[in-house]
Amino acid sequence: MYLTIKETADYLSLPEELVKSLVLQKKIRSLYDGEEYLIYKNQFQSHLEQVEKYKMLYDEYMKEPIPEDIDVKDED
C-alpha cells in the first residue's frame, strides 16, 4: 500500500514538512508518479516494531528497584 506525504506524516506522527524533507534527501524511499511522491507503507514496519521493543525494554528497566550500595555504612 502506498501513501502520500501527508498520509505518511499522519501514520508516523511527524510533521508533513519533515517527511517531505526526508523524501527529498532520499532517506525515505519513494516513487514519484509525475504529480506527487508515493511512499510504500510497509518499509516502516520493522522500524516501528523495534521502537516498540525498545519502549518495552526501557519500561522494564525503569521498574527495577535501585540496588543498595554495599559501601554504605550505618554511622548512627
What does this 3D model show about the protein?
This protein has 76 residues and is mostly helical. The chain has one domain. The protein is built from three helices and three strands; from the N terminus they run βααββα.
Helix and strand topology:
Layout: E1 2-3, H1 5-12, H2 16-24, E2 31-32, E3 37-40, H3 45-63
Strand ordering within the main sheet: 1-3-2
Task: Report the β-strand fraction as a percent range.
Answer: 5-15%
- Based on DSSP secondary structure assignment, what is the total number of beta strands? 3
Radius of gyration: 22 Å
Round the mean pLDDT to the nearest integer and report it: 89
Instruction: Bin the helical content.
Output: 40-55%
Structurally, how many domains make up the residues? Answer: 1
Largest sheet: 3 strands, antiparallel
Oligomer description: single chain
How many angstroms separate the termini?
Answer: 69 Å
- Separate helix tally: 3
Order of helices and strands: EHHEEH
SS-based class? mainly alpha
Shape: rod-shaped
Low-confidence stretches: none
Protein name: Helix-turn-helix domain-containing protein
GO molecular function: DNA binding
